Hints:
mainly alpha
Amino acid sequence: MLIALCLAGILVSLGSGLFHLSRGDGAEDSRKLALALTVRVSLSLTLFALLFMAWRLGFLAPHSLAVGVPPHP
Length: 73
């Protein structure tokens, strides 16, 4: 659930940044653009940390890519 919230927050922040980038009326939009991108980077790092912790705690497990399965002809 927390991972889905991080992903949603990243998308909202990306949309907000795009909106302020396309308007580009002045210093206020530049400040809001920088803030939106800062939030996006912070949420992305948080998402990475959550995924890493879930992997280390055993909640997520990587799968092998076709180990023991013969290749397709």
